């Protein structure tokens, strides 16, 4: 299961109730900050989650409303907070802009307060843990290096306790070894293999996060079957031409993508303060009913059976 916390859901500029783009994805002890708009550190404090283990930041693209918070965050680490290391993942030109911000403005010749690594990534899987992977994929927006992120649990075979009981497998480490893929021998000499007590492999939870985007036809396959799709809805269809001009999506375009890709839930963010939330929601739900508009500090649990 992934847990998703929205820290900022506004488009381009903050509003009275919405901060700039940022969200945290958590899976057990792992935490990823996706984008870091202006004011993100205050939102982290307001949410009451602190900075512990927040040492991996994924940036979708280099526009200022998605990166300016990095300066404030590093400044706070210089003076108040301590983390063991900080890794920032992004495309090459995005990292160049981030380097200018952090080293040219914040640090200005001083060393960072922790090992700071700016890690250039290309489309493909760039992070793997025991239970899940994180994959970058290309997104069409203004300028190069625009990326989305796919968080996907690895497929696993469920343990079937009724079969284990029938074979006489005791509770304890023996069952854990079977889940880990080992064959065991019981005290009575019975040999039990993983195939004896494990069911068919089941796909894990799939979460897709897209930052700003100007088209959706190139996102269908990566979004296919996702348990949740997080994507921008900066405009309504009445201003579709403006959306096209600035390479953004309308709420209807986002919903049509969700429908075509057969996702389970659509979560809209990057909401312009020119619109009422209920109007954004109504336009999307007319196409894809299982849509919500995220608000700052909303929390969602993304499970494989959703």
Defining key terms:
306 residues, alpha/beta, Metallo-beta-lactamase, Chain A, seven-stranded mixed beta sheet, 11 helices
Topology:
Elements lengths: L1 E7 L13 E6 L2 E5 L5 H8 L8 E3 L5 H4 L1 H11 L6 E5 L1 H16 L8 E5 L3 E5 L3 E7 L8 E7 L7 H7 L5 H7 L4 E2 L5 E2 L1 H4 L8 E4 L10 H4 L4 E5 L7 H6 L5 H11 L4 E4 L7 H9 L5 E3 L5 E4 L4
Parallel strand pairs: 3-4, 4-5, 5-6, 12-13, 13-14, 14-15
Antiparallel strand pairs: 1-2, 1-16, 2-3, 7-8, 8-9, 9-12, 10-11
Helix pairs in contact: 3-4, 10-11
Question: Can you offer a commentary on this structure?
Answer:
This protein folds into two domains: about 1-155 and about 200-300, Ribonuclease Z/Hydroxyacylglutathione hydrolase-like (Metallo-beta-lactamase, Chain A, 4-Layer Sandwich), CATH 3.60.15; about 160-195, no CATH class. The chain is of the alpha/beta class. The N and C termini lie close together (about 10 Å). Strands 6-5-4-3-2-1-16 form a seven-stranded mixed beta sheet. Strands 7-8-9-12-13-14-15 form a seven-stranded mixed beta sheet, covered by helices on one side. It has a two-stranded antiparallel ribbon with strand order 10-11. It has helices at about 40-45, 65, 70-80, 90-105, 160-165, 175-180, 195, 220-225, 240-245, 250-260, 275-285, and strands at about 1-10, 20-25, 30-35, 55-60, 85-90, 115-120, 125-130, 130-140, 145-155, 185, 190, 205-210, 230, 265-270, 290-295, 300. The model has no long low-confidence stretch (mean pLDDT about 95). It contains eleven helices and 16 strands.
